[in-house]
Amino acid sequence: MNTTHRILLSVILIGMTQFDVIAQDKRDFGIQAGATYYYGEFNEVMPLYSPSFAMGVIFRYNINHNYSIRASAIYATVSGTSSSSSIIPDPGINFSKNIIGAEAMGEFNFFPLNPTNSRKAKLSPYVNAGVGIAQMGTSLIFHIPFGGGLKFTPGQRHTFALEWRFHKTFNDKIDDYSSPNDGRKPFLHNNDWFSFIGLIYTYRIPNNSYICPAYK
Q1: Percent of the chain scored above 70 by pLDDT?
Q2: Cα–Cα–Cα angle for 172, 175, 181, nearest 5°?
Q3: Element (H, E) at 3
Q4: Is 30 helix (H, G, I), strand (E, B) or coil?
Q5: pLDDT tens digit string along 186-199?
Q6: Which domains are present in the chain?
Q7: Is 80:51 a contact under the CB 8 Å cutoff?
Q8: pLDDT digits (tens, 9 = 90+) for 35-91
Q9: Fewest CB atoms less than 10 Å from the CB: which of 25, 75, 191, 202?
Q10: pLDDT-based confidence at 202, cuts 50/70/90?
């Protein structure tokens, strides 16, 4: 084998190695289901206030076993009544609004997690944060989603997560009531929030390419 052949073979072997690295399974797709509720003038501090069913889809791209980015969409409802608040003079105000939302978030696992390899850790807490937009009633609102949870993978490409997520909006009219400037300092500022708590299931999408076991 002459020098030229050795160089060509080396280039091919290096290229195949790099292809194996790039070809690693990195994409997750799944669903989320749980409950949404709101914080505002009618509910300043109570978790799971007037909860409503929510469901959606999620796509995650895993940069490595700790860091990932994800995009998700959700359909949900938030509702409430002023009779549950001691600061609203009119007890007859109530609301119910559907939410169609989407968000992009970064995510961090505290421990490496790989659903294609049973030799790695199977359980990890995680946190996430990002930006989002939602159609709520007749209004289009921007929000900042952030939260955390616990992931578990039994292997075979499956991952389950329990997540609690908060969405800070820049809108004080989700409940159709804007509090007057009375000098009070409401909990976590004067704009309304909504929150999601529930389960997320994702499946690691195969790339239909051979993956070197050393990179799993």
Answers
A1: 73
A2: 45
A3: helix 3-22
A4: strand
A5: 544 568 899 999 99
A6: 26-215 (2.40.160.20)
A7: no
A8: 999 988 778 888 888 899 999 999 999 999 999 999 999 999 998 887 655 555 566
A9: 75
A10: very high
Distance, in Å, from the CA atom of 118 to the CA atom of 8, rounded to the nearest integer, reads: 37
Distance CA 193, CA 174 (A): 8
Cα–Cα distance measured from residue 92 to residue 169, given in angstroms and rounded to the nearest whole number: 25
Spatial separation of the C-alpha atoms in residues 49 and 153, rounded to whole Å:
31
Retrieve residue 6's tokens.
Answer: 């050795």
Backbone angles phi, psi at 149, to 5 degrees: 180, -160
**CA-angle at 136, arms to 131 and 142, nearest 5°:** 25
The residue among 40, 43, 48, 39 whose CA lies nearest residue 198 is 48
Among all chains, which residue has been given the structure tokens 């199977």?
A: 122
pLDDT at 18: 45
- From CA 175, how far away is CA 35, in angstroms rounded? 18
DSSP 14: H
Side chain identity at residue 205, one-letter code: I
Taking the model in full, what pTM does it have? 0.78
CA distance 52 to 77: 6
End-to-end Cα separation, the chain, in angstroms: 33
| Structural contact between residues 158 and 134, judged by C-beta atoms closer than 8 angstroms | no
The secondary structure of residue 91, as a DSSP letter, is: T
Asked whether the predicted pLDDT for residue 153 surpasses 60, the reply is yes
CA nearest neighbour of 60 among 208, 203, 210:
203
The residue with greater pLDDT, 209 or 29, is 29
Average pLDDT over residues 116-127: 84
